[in-house]
What we know:
Number of strands: 18
Oligomer: single chain
Radius of gyration: 24 Å
Structural class: alpha/beta
Low-confidence stretches: 357-371
CATH superfamily of the largest domain: Aldolase class I
Mean pLDDT: 91
Strand content: 15-25%
Distance between the termini: 53 Å
CATH topology of the largest domain: TIM Barrel
Amino acid sequence: MILEILGHSYQYELEKLTRLFFPNEKIRVVYKKSDAAETEPLFRTEIRENNAYVFCCLDGKALEQTVSLKDVEDPELQIASMLFRTLTDLTGYQPKWGLLTGIRPSKLLLALQAEMGEENAHTYFLDRFFVSEEKTALTESVAAREESIIRTSRPDSCSLYVSIPFCPTRCSYCSFVSHAMTAATAKKLLPDYVALLTKEIEKTGAYAKSLGLRLESVYFGGGTPTTLSAEQLGTLLSAIDRAFDLSFVREYTVEAGRPDTITREKLDTLKSGGVTRVSINPQTFNDAVLREIGRNHTSALTESAYFEARSAGFGNINMDFIAGLPMDTPDSFAASVDRAILLNPENITVHTLSVKRASNLGTQNAKVERASGLAADRMLGYAYQKLTANAYHPYYMYRQSKTLGNLENTGYAKAGYECIYNIFMMEECHTVFAVGAGAVTKLKSPHGKEIERIFNYKYPYEYISGFEEILARKEKILPFYEKYT
């Protein structure tokens, strides 16, 4: 497939838009006219003499559009709209998110609402971005709840992210930097990793205290943090308690995502260490699907871990599910959602399968192609209807590349149990200090929108060998804040 970019500089958005319709095809971008229409699919976009032209040829069928740009305020949106309509007509497929390719539709909607009001923003989503009524309503619901949480962030607020990039095994769909503990090298790295992570926590906490920042939320992510032993978890929790003032913390989350890593000893350690929220993630309650994706636990073990967490005193539990997993069906997925509702966790997060090149699934094209975006859409639709009918409301949403059907990931929660870290991090409400391998600290100016990022080394072995450089990079924290005081 060839995408021609002629007389304009809108390659990025138009290429992403074309990939919505052909996610698994190789698209070659060129900057001059070709004769490819006779031999292969061609998508020509051109601005010439204050006119926009789109010509598309696919499977022997050709369509074209021409529009004057004389009174057009946004030529990029205009030519994108033309390409979208032409591809929709050629393929018979209209993505439910329309033109939107960004990861945060709710942020865009909030900006439009502030500019033109709720009713006009609603119409703009439908008519200018071609977003479906269903996805527009979802975005509006999420935006309203996000806005209420965003307002609670103060200029002196901050959050802390702790990266534990280790898992018991690697799931077939996973593209995260995560070491499987089945590898001997990972086991050898872990003690040094925890020891250095403790030092980074202490150093970062010292900066936060010197700046007088209020720690609002703490989030242990991964990987699977509960891959660590109870003793190692206790070491990190104690380090945070020493390094930070925890008196303002409203939420303290640890992803205990893999049920086969959860023990009562670990849960008691987390509880006594101040953790208030845990994730226990089934992904599915279909044991055949669990085996297919490389999970070593069963649905029965998930329920056992869930009840153990309740027994340990956790009153805020999240469960994750993924729509579109290999071997799963809409009926099987619906059964998983129904089973989760009966368990009654405070949060249920519904992801759409995203097949990245770095995942094992990403190298198995036949399986990927068999996974149906239409089936995933049915799964998400069922989840929305069933969860909202049972007092779970969507409060958090993001999109990512390579998802089936170009669909979304949505967090649902009972009222008052929304994960505030998710909002603070995604909406860049305040500084998020991040520690550990692959962690990215995002410094935000107290009264503005300026963001500066500090990157840690990606892999645990790099983190260990380059630890002094990581501490040196953290020295940028104080100069950043000095610019705004």
